[in-house]
Amino acid sequence: MKKIFLFVICALMSVCTFAQSKINWEGQAGLNISKYNTVLYGSNMGFHVGVRGQMDVPSLFNGAYINAGALFSLKGASIDMGELADGKSSAYYLDIPVHLGYKHTVNDNFSVFGEFGPYFAFGLFGKTDSNTIDYDDDYEQVSSYESHNTFDEFKRFDFGLGIRLGVEFRQKYTFSIGYDFGLANTWNKNWEKEESEYDDEINLVEDVKNRNLTISIGYKF
Questions:
Q1: Sign of the CA dihedral 50, 161, 65, 17?
Q2: 3-class SS at 10?
Q3: Does the 22-220 domain belong in CATH 2.40.160.20?
Q4: CA 102 distance to own-chain centroid
Q5: H helices within the chain, ranges in order?
Q6: pLDDT for res 197
Q7: Can you give the pTM of this predicted structure?
């Protein structure tokens, strides 16, 4: 809990410092297509919604800007172990991207932009549901359902690099596609798993990193 408070305080301090300069604000919402970088997981559909602030920095080069945001984001992955198990892992994050960008103005009604930089994320809450297939003593197939907090299994803090490309219409509306490439190993090594004689064969989740494709629309105000 102390880590949560410290993270929120640092985020608020960063926003307040950023807000002291001339900022163009943008509300943003869109689709997430997220997964983990291991063979046991497939993609999961989610969403993001929040606000971004953009500050022009022409001292760097013409068209340069810094973009920072605070987004409520649903990520996670589907669980795919073939005939052994399936399920879904949902993870809600507070995402804070901080990007350096470039915008090229074609005319008064149309611009193109691209940006790149780090993101920081803190896990808020989540749930993982799984169905495991096994056999009883009579060799009859049985399934068992299990559910737990996603952030018992995975670490809450995540960071990585993100890129975003898009277009701007009438200096008000934006459409963009982005990709976040997680660098942190979010797997919680203290996660207690049920002992099995097959553990050494199926334990493929020692290094889990987030991957997330985003499709967004925005409105500048």
A1: positive
A2: helix
A3: yes
A4: 23
A5: 2-19, 150-153, 199-202
A6: 44
A7: 0.82
